[in-house]
Amino acid sequence: MAKKNQPEQAQLEAELNFEEAMNQLEEIVRHLERGEVPLEQAIELFQQGMKLSQLCGRKLSQVERKIEMIVEEDGEAVKRPFHSPEGEGDLLG
Q1: Do 78 and 69 touch, CB atoms closer than 8 A?
Q2: Which of 9, 14, 25, 42 could lock 52 by a disulfide, CB 3.0 to 4.6 Å apart?
Q3: CB–CB of 36/42 below 8 Å?
Q4: pLDDT at position 79
Q5: What is the mean pLDDT of each run of 10 residues along the chain (93 residues)?
Q6: How far apart are CA 30 and CA 63, in angstroms?
């Protein structure tokens, strides 16, 4: 079943940028919070929201890997890879 979802996920990633995915996710959350949708539709919305959440997570990870921080070290600008908050100690050297 996971293999069946891979083309769907790839298509979703190709069609949506991060902001569009977040907007759709926020809309799904609003619908679910209102509690006015039938159970079956709520389950479908939840599943779609999970896919969008995973997509956003993947896109953030991709961007994080691309970001480099420029820091001054011994009077020279040095590029260092960006580290997430969990790895902040790595940047402080």
Answers
A1: no
A2: 25
A3: no
A4: 72
A5: 59 83 96 94 96 93 73 68 56 41
A6: 27
Q: Which amino acid is at 88?
A: E
CA dist., res. 64 & res. 62, Å (int): 5
Q: How many helices (H) and strands (E) does the chain have?
A: 4, 2
Let me know: does 56 contact 22? Beta carbons within 8 Å. Answer: yes
Residue 36 corresponds to which tokens in the numbers above? 């006015």
pLDDT at residue 76 in the model: 74
Integer Cα distance of 24 and 52 in angstroms: 8
How far is the C-alpha of 37 from the C-alpha of 33, rounded, in Å? 10
User: Identity (one letter) of the amino acid at 48?
Assistant: Q
Q: Please, what's the b/e burial string for 23-52 (b: 16 or more CB within 10 A of its CB; e: otherwise)? A: ebbeebeeeeeeeeeeeeeeeebeeebebb
- Rounded to the nearest 5°, which phi and psi values hold at 16? -115, 140
Distances (CA, A) of 35 to 22, 25, 66, 68: 20, 16, 39, 43
User: How many residues in the chain?
Assistant: 93
